């Protein structure tokens, strides 16, 4: 089980109320207010759903991701491209869950408008993601 909620502060219920986090037995839980009844859902279950969407999006946009990473690094050579490709192929969801997401990254996501909306069972019903600017 997860020891920390990856998306703490970014999760909301279907009524747009922030979902709190807590620890039970050392495991992180999202706490959903269901008309006064506090439902606890394993943060790992929710976090895996969200990471699954992220990894799927990354896979379908891998070429753009590699190009953008190379631009950010200021590199445009075959070895850098191969290294980035290998890194993207070897992303491990379990490792992300174990390492967590830095608080600064979560804050930045929140400022950009990123939100996760879950129902009372902890199922992700919507992801609000900032859109990339149009290239004109």
Overview of the molecule:
With about 140 residues, the chain is an alpha+beta fold. It has one domain (about 10-130). It is built from five helices and six strands, in the order E-E-E-E-H-H-H-H-H-E-E. The strands form two sheets. Strands 1-5-6 form a three-stranded mixed beta sheet, with helices on one face. A hairpin with a 2-residue loop joins strand 3 (about 25-35) and strand 4 (about 35-40). Helix 2 packs across helix 3 (about 80-90). About 10% of the residues are buried. The mean pLDDT is about 90.
> How many individual helices?
5
Strand content: 15-25%
Number of domains: 1
- The structural class is alpha+beta
Mean pLDDT value: 89
Report the sheet with the most strands, covering strand number, pairing sense and barrel closure.
Answer: 3 strands, mixed
Q: How many runs of DSSP E, i.e. beta strands? A: 6
Output the radius of gyration.
17 Å
Please describe the topology of this protein.
Elements: E1 11-12, E2 20-24, E3 27-34, E4 37-42, H1 43-60, H2 62-73, H3 78-89, H4 93-99, H5 103-111, E5 115-118, E6 124-128
Parallel strand pairs: 1-5
Antiparallel strand pairs: 2-3, 3-4, 5-6
Helix pairs in contact: 2-3
């Amino acid at each position: 089980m997860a020891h920390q909620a990856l998306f703490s502060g970014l999760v909301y219920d279907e009524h747009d109320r922030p979902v709190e986090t807590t620890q039970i037995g050392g495991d992180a839980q999202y706490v959903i207010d269901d008309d006064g009844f506090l439902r606890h859902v394993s943060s790992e279950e929710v976090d895996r759903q969200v990471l699954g969407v992220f990894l799927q999006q990354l896979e379908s946009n891998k070429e753009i991701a590699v190009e953008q990473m190379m631009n950010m690094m200021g590199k445009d050579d075959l070895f850098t491209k191969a290294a980035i490709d290998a890194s993207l192929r070897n992303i491990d969801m379990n490792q992300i869950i174990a390492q967590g997401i830095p608080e600064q990254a979560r804050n930045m996501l929140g400022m950009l408008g990123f939100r996760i909306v879950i129902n009372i069972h902890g199922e992700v019903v919507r992801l609000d993601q900032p859109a990339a600017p149009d290239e004109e």
